[in-house]
Amino acid sequence: MILEVALLQVKPGLTEDFEYNFKQAAGIICKMKGYINHELRKCIEDKNKYILLVRWETLEDHTKGFRESVEYQEWKKLLHHFYEPFPTVEHFEEIPS
Q1: How far from 74 is each of 21, 48, 71, 77, CA to CA, in Å?
Q2: Average pLDDT of the chain?
C-alpha cells in the first residue's frame, strides 16, 4: 500500500465551491482500480489549505491507472482550477515497525 499526499492551497474565496466539487470528484476516484480510501482535511490555521491523503494498492495504480485515465480528465476539470500554486504530490510507503 502506498499513501499519496497532496497539500492543496485553494484560491481565496473558493473554498465552498472546492469542497462541493471535491464531493463529486471523490465519486470518480473511489471507482478506480487500486483505490483503497481517501481523506480530505482542512487546515485549522489557514482556511484555504487542505491535505489530501489517498491510499492506493500500488504506485502504478495512481501514476498510470488513474493519471492516464479518462476519469482523470474529469477530475482535472472539477478541481485543478481551484489551486494556486498547483500542488506537489508525493508518495509514501509504510515502514514496518
Answers
A1: 11, 23, 5, 5
A2: 97
